[in-house]
Amino acid sequence: MSLSPINVSGIVFDLDGTLVNTIPDLAHAANKMLEQLGFASVSKSEFPNYIGHGVDGLINGLLKKFLKNFSVDNSLVLEAHAIFKKEYRLCVSRFSKVYSGVYDTLDTLKGYQVKLFCVTNKPYEYTRIILRDLALDKYFDLVLAGDTLDRKKPDPLPLNYLSRVFELPIKKLLMIGDSMVDIKTAREAGCPVFCVSYGYHGQNEIDSLGADAIIDSVRDIFPLINLDQHAC
C-alpha cells in the first residue's frame, strides 16, 4: 500500500491484538466460564471472532453460540459475567505476550516529543494489570479503558477526548489497531489509522478493512510518519 508519510504529534495504540496477544488468557478464562455453565469449550482459533467489543461483547458472543434464544436480560448472562470476572482475575497476564517489535518501537517513540496513548475496550481493572505486568505502563501519557469514559470504541469519543485534553489536532492523531472497531473509531473521529496484519480482525479480510496502511509490525510505522517534534 502506497502512502505518503503523515504528520503525527500523537499515537494511539489499541491493546488486545495490537500490542499484546491476550487470547491465551481470555480463552482460558472464557472456557472456564463455559465449562461451569455446562457448555463445550471453544478453540483458541475462534476467539478472534469475539474480541474487540470489550468483555460484554466476548461473553455475549460466546453465549449466542450456544443459546438459540439469547437475551442480554437472561440471568445466565449475569452468572457468566461473574464467573468470567473471577477466572480472568486469576490469569489476566499469566500467558499473554507482547508482540515482537513493540518494546523497541515504544522506546524509540519515547525519544521524541510525541504523545503516546493506549485506548482499549477492555475494562480498566484488567488493562492496568496487563500494562503493569508486561512493563508497558511507563510508555503512555494516558490510558483510556472501556469503562473510563461514557462511551467506548467504535464511538469516536476516546479519540476526540485525547485531541481536546492534549490539544492535538485530530488529523495528527494516529490510531494503530487490529480490527474494524479501531478503523471505524478513527474514521468517525477523522484521524488516520494503521492496521496490524497479525491482530484480531476475525473473518474480515485485512485488505477490506479500509485502513490507511497495513503493517506487519508496529516498527513498520516509521517510514510512514513524520513526527512533528524531535526531542532535544
What does this protein structure show overall?
The protein has 232 residues and is α/β, with parallel strands linked by helices. The protein folds into two domains: 6-21 and 97-227, Rossmann fold (3-Layer(aba) Sandwich), CATH 3.40.50; 23-91, DNA polymerase, domain 1, CATH 1.10.150. It has seven helices and ten strands. The protein has helices at 23-37, 54-66, 75-91, 102-110, 124-133, 157-165, 180-189, and strands spanning 6-8, 10-13, 20-21, 97-98, 115-119, 142-144, 173-177, 193-196, 213-215, 225-227. The protein has a six-stranded parallel beta sheet with strand order 6-5-2-7-8-9, covered by helices on one side. A two-stranded parallel sheet has the order 1-10.
The CATH top-level class label of the largest domain: Alpha Beta
Indicate the CATH architecture of the largest domain: 3-Layer(aba) Sandwich
Straight-line N-to-C gap: 33 Å
* Gyration radius over CA: 18 Å
Looking at CATH, the homologous superfamily of the largest domain is HAD superfamily/HAD-like
Provide the structure class: alpha/beta
User: Quick one: how many beta strands?
Assistant: 10
Helix content: 25-40%
What is the strand content?
5-15%
Secondary-structure element order, N to C: EEEHHHEHEHEHEHEEE
Assign the CATH topology of the largest domain.
Answer: Rossmann fold
The main sheet orders its strands as: 6-5-2-7-8-9
Number of helices: 7
Shape field: globular
Task: Quote the average pLDDT.
Answer: 92
